[in-house]
Structures
1.
Amino acid sequence: MKYNFLSPCKLNLFLYITGKREDGYHNLQTLFVVLDYGDMMHFENTDDGKIELTTDFGFDVKKNLIYRAAKLLQDKTGCSLGVTISIDKILPQGGGLGGGSANAATTLLVLNKLWNLNLSEKELIEMGTGLGADVPIFIKGKTCFAEGIGEKLVEVDYPQKYYLVVTPDCSVPTAKLFSSDKLKKDSPCRSYNELLALPFENCFTPVVINEYPQVKDLLAKLSVYGKSYMSGSGSSCFVEFNDELSANNALSEFRKTGFKCFVAKSVEQSSVLKKLHQIK
């Protein structure tokens, strides 16, 4: 039997780096929202123990996060089942929307269910952290305040909103940004409530707009509709709306500019988790 799941994307509503860790990674504080938009993934159980990713990404399949997530589950649990996976990819790579991380998290969640592994959320988050810092938020699948490298997640209440999300024609390499001496890496640690009361900021934005004029131009264009922000380390940017009609009106106008864009709503729980609860 084939199962289909929407592998969602995320936005960082604010993002601050608070320092460098002994392991070389950086601690951060960020507010994640998960959206009802993303790649469609298809899973079919097999009995031969093989992991097959039939979608061609243009590079070695064993380096793909989807394959690595499935193989990690097999290796950790000794599961003898296999799976055939394909994906209808629409989210951009290097866009700051967490598409690849979401694909990995969706794979962990779905195969945990389909292979009857019964691993806990905590165990899946620990496994996911080894695959990528954004994987845990998609395991959680809810609006969260995140600390550490993104693996320390606390569910928070934040109003559901509509977002116009736009991706310029450039990809921003995160590693390059972290090596920049212009990146602020010493923001003070503050509580979620303290950060909520301040104007939202993304510490990567000043560095990115200095290096990528396309992002600077996009943020200016989006500011016509409200306060515009960049998600993650870029390059995708967004504006928040209170209602769907206003967001879609802005989308209709923005599509004329030729940018890749969509409107999505933040969700209380990801569609992956909702669908998994329905599978007996």
2.
Amino acid sequence: MKEIIVGVDGSEPSLLATDWAAAEAARRKAPLRVVHVVPPWLYEAPADPGASLIRDRLLQDGRNIVDLGAARARDRAPGLEVTGEQTGGQPAEALLRRARDALMVVTGPRGTGGLTGLVLGSVAVQVATHAPCPAVVVRPSEPSARGEIVVGVDGSPAGAAAIGFAFEEASVRRVRLRALLAWTSPVSTGPGDMLPLVYDRELLAADEERLLAESLAGWRTEYPDVDVVPAAVRGRAARVLAEASADADLLVVGSRGRGGFTGLLLGSVGHAVLHRAHCPVAIVRGRP
């Protein structure tokens, strides 16, 4: 079975991400791999005996971080299959390599190397942007089960993958799924698409309601056990989803939606909710 990967660095945010990943692995009956990444030069044999002592101490510190994360995961989910791993390299690159064959990859918002005041660190952004599997960023929040998952719907391929992931999560957790499609005006669907200068708001609202229903139809059939609350809401997607996340256990969005610039791996809505959401955020990439 595919593993869930979680990155740890000994910081409290990374340990909270480990708690979340352990609970998720237990729900899905999947193994969990706790990964700590150290600078690659620590695996090179230094000529200076003094440097060797420092190297050995730093490697031991890293092993202690792995052990701490693995022990925390086992405490959070007794009986869970947990593997600890320390490796050398750049943290984001190491996590992304392991994400190629993973069920999902989980990080905290920022770790020990993050600049004070930053809401989101570079590792979390890079992993969320490039991960081939769902990437979950666990923001610090009050630990409470709200019984709801929120998913952003937009009619894009990545949005469709996000809907599928959200339905699966809601089914596994046995919670309600709130599917939100936010709209403000007609959206370009590709290069050369001419947008009207004047449009009928009621007709557009009806079109968005139709898109929402069509986007959910197949998944509702596949997951009849999931209670779905759909809503097409007039407003900017990032604001609508961030506000809804205040009452959610998880917010799920596609990596890039309608109207996004070709070539962008993570769209503006994904970036915004990673910074503004009140709960963990899952970024899901569409199939190539």
3.
Amino acid sequence: MAITQYDTSLAQNVDGTVRRPSLRIDGGQTSRRPDSVSVESALSIAVEKSGTTYELGLTMRTPGEDEELVIGFLHSEGVIQSSDCLSSVQMGEDRVVVHLTDSAEFDPEALTRRTTMTSSCGICGKDSISNLLHIHGPELSESFIASHQNVSDSVSGLRTKQKTFDLTGGTHACGRAGPDGKITDVREDIGRHNAMDKLIGAALLAEEIPIDEEMVVVSGRASFELVQKALKAGFPAMVSVGAPSSLAVDMANEHGMTLVSFANQDRMTVFSGSNRISVD
């Protein structure tokens, strides 16, 4: 039975959220009221080069920062390396068309073959398992050093900036932090990979790629897709609140990235690159 009756309490004005009727049961008591949920909707992505438009398909995302999302995704796929590869970006309500310059390296057959995406799946369409660990990215900084306290500060700092999560409990977050643990930029999305793409896309548009003296902090687990995206952006260190996957650890070790997981105020586990973590 659909829930359609609820009270008229005002909704908080937070982008990427909508109000939906709900029946709340708490301590045996029921109440009907609207509740905030994160928006999930489809975004159509296309690339145009030399007069030909290539449809890359759909991704499910939380609307907002769509340009950053698509630019970050294309960077992680190796289509663009800098803003010099962009001629223009055409924005629609639920569609983004990226116009590439002639200098952009774009193999439409390869990219369209491996771009089946959902909000929870980053590169499910990759056509070769052997290509997953062996990627090309910028040289990672060996001078970056962070302490346990710095890592802890970055995690707590990220949490204070998750406004959509505070309201809905339904989004992931990625943030940039300096060696001192201070968060400088954050993006949220219903998909963890989208949040990372938005963060990296914003950095690329600001001409801050590669990122060489910062760590990227993620609010959930560390998957190999997130490690891959972080490596291509140049982050020497990645911090996750949750657990890493085996492929994430293997990829971080192969490329010399520092991977810290289960990070909080009291403890953390370093799975690779311990030379960049100092013990207080």
4.
Amino acid sequence: MTLSAQELQEIEQQAIGFAKKTGRILMDRFQRPMSVDYKDKEGWKDPVTEADKVAEAFLSEETSRLFPDHGFVGEEGSGREAGSSRLMWVVDPLDGTTNFSNGLPSFCCSIALVEDGEPVVGAIYMPWPETKEGRIIHARKGGGAWEGEVRLQVASGNKPISGRVVVRGGFLPGRFRPSKDLLANGGQQRSVGSTASELAMVADGTYQYTLHGNPHSWDVAAGIILVKEAGGTSLSHGKNGWYPLTTFKNNPPGGTQEPITQESLRHWQSPVLSGNPEMV
């Protein structure tokens, strides 16, 4: 199926509601005593808290209740296949768990609907000073990127401004490195420890660009559509260089056209560069 403009608008409103309610779940547990488990072998790199699990369970249940023919992929392991609808919710219930568990208010909830591999709806909740409900940045395909009644736009210009912030932490040895000019004039590097938050702030023009070295699908799915609808672009990197990242299908130029499944979304990882198309 291909979603109509009306269907996209209705689903976007549902995604905003999901983001608001998930934000409340997270804030009810923020800066309170919590146990932290670790999913990695080292036992300190990849934390998970009760908040991650409760938020993901809520999103899995709500998307299933309202959209029983849609699939679901969550970072913490929840999932179901989409079947013939080809529509998958891809969520990170708490992006920035290390910040969250240490009492730093730099985290978010990232919610995206992916149609046959392409992000078409996105909503990101972020806590924000002096706002009870935090910020919700949202977009749908063809509808622009918004925060409330304010339409968002990526940072302007074809070159980074030295005094403005960027995320440039993803240069991987042997794959791609910054040029001397970029190191000298590439902007002030600032990472908030939450990939999805950083992409939302590319969409609103705070960050000039971001480069993330190896994010998962749930880290970037919502951010890709937010940046695109704010006038930006996202690129990924393969053996033939950079290419437009418009789908999670494993199809850089010359690649295959495999159907999207829980497994393929769960295993997707690739560099992502996002910003004004004249700049990146």
